[in-house]
Amino acid sequence: MQLVKRLAELEEELRQAKAKLPAVQPPTTDGMLAWEEVATALRDKRDESISENRQLKVQNYVRTQLVHDMRRWLALAHARPTYTPLRASWHNVTLFANPDSRALGKDWITQHLYHNADAVFARHAHPNFDASDGFFDMDIEFSDTCFHYVFYHQYTTPTSVPVLCADYMKRLCALLLVDGFTPVRVNTLKESTATTALHQLKTSMGEAVNLLCGEFHTERRSVLVAQHIHDDETWQPHLKQRNINWTCQMEPVPGSETTTRVKSIYRFSQCFSQHGYNELEDEARIVGLDLGQCPEELKEARFRLVILRWFARMRERFAVTKRLT
Predict the structure, then answer these.
(1) Which domains, from first to last, does the chain contain?
(2) Which branch of life, at top level (predicted)?
(3) Cα(282)–Cα(325) distance, rounded to whole angstroms?
């Protein structure tokens, strides 16, 4: 029965092959296909099968790799510590090298940040647009493992939402001053999709910045979010890093398509490496503060006071410069 079935299959293949032959081909004297024509048809069929088999193998490999990465993602989430405070998940600071896994990771991270945007503003008691004309403020948050510099900003700009979003997606490192007061003049955009951008930079202080940014739009508002990627299989500079996250909301001013109200919360920690976070004394030295003679129980308060005073002076200087220009 198997031979009969196979014979029927071959006859059908020959019928299809004969139908594909050019009409100008004269038939053989006995009315049957020439052996060269049969051989050509069978060879074409074989090549087609080989090509299809290769494509299936590639697809199978890609899917297998994706499943492998997702299993690794789940396993490492429980096995590897994270230096991000407030119990942020290891999933939110990791990107794999495999393109499909990498794309999935980018979507996961940015979607997670976006869905928590309102909670971020609420946790920091950030006022609504209607409650404030604008401000620029700073605080320092200490936790059991580290501390974060936190910047609160709200302002109105004569720029449309689409133009402002595009500028941030293109020049995120420069606009967030990730290298302090050292201007970022190089192109930091390394990867981009329709909704994400990945920026990478080695700062003048010898720190690695690997910022993933995502944009989300509704009829009412646009939200941009960014997170520093701690663990990236495609970029491992072996430098100190900072945990950085940024949440920004933009809305057009009612009655205007070219004026935008913006509010944002920008947080970054002290430096960390694979061995842990910098000591407070080391971080203080970066900004020129010596805590060596300060009592241990007063170091955090002293550091916070000096940094906030410095910020107040810089904010006033910026405001004066802005009024004079």
Answers:
(1) 105-274 (3.30.530.20), 279-313 (no CATH)
(2) Eukaryota
(3) 38
